[in-house]
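Morning F.,

Quick status update on the modeling queue. The single chain you submitted on Monday has been processed. Sequence for confirmation:
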Amino acid sequence: MIKLYQYEVCPYCCKVKAVLDYKKIAYEKIEVNPMTHEELASVPGAIEYDKVPVLVDGEKVVFESNDIIRYLDQKYSKNPIVALDAKGRLVQDKWIQFVDDELVQILPGNIYRSLTESLDSFKYITKVGKFPRWKRYYLALGGAVAMTIVAKKGMKKRGITDPRKALSDTLQKWSQGMAGKKFMGGDRPDISDLVCAGTLTAVHEMKVWDFIAEQKPVADWYQRMASLLN
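Structure tokens below.
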């Protein structure tokens, strides 16, 4: 069985899980300890890579979320997601880059917008992550304070004064790109739908999701995607 070494709420890992689920590929999730990475020790090259996700398929080891996704589509033909023609792949690549360069980047400033929201997020992160029970409180508190500061600096560096408006504008770009279609891929999802849905799944249990759910075109599209990934 395929093994996916991951963090449960990592958006890059969630992108890969969305593809695996959509293609109905059986896999085992292996939660990596974010402090020691000890689970990666037996995977060739993984310690040197020092990131997740890492996919192991028999003797094959694949790093980097987008490379993993393309590998899966090439090897597992059920429910293909990558366009066959060069023009179609260029459009898909544009939206994959949008997710990685815009959506993923705007989320931290919204997840950790205030100390209260940061603490709420870290309570969830430490609950689903591979953390000893006795460490969760200290990690949640310390992480919340640190990430609130980091998020504010990140937003300032990007010239963003209102993280929620910036997130709304980013999501609006996605809904405008669909131009009334059911999915970015048309009548069925393509690779861009899956990387975007996976990224949003990473924050589905956090406070910021209440705001995302209010963005109706995106929320409706996400529900269509979620029904296909269960």
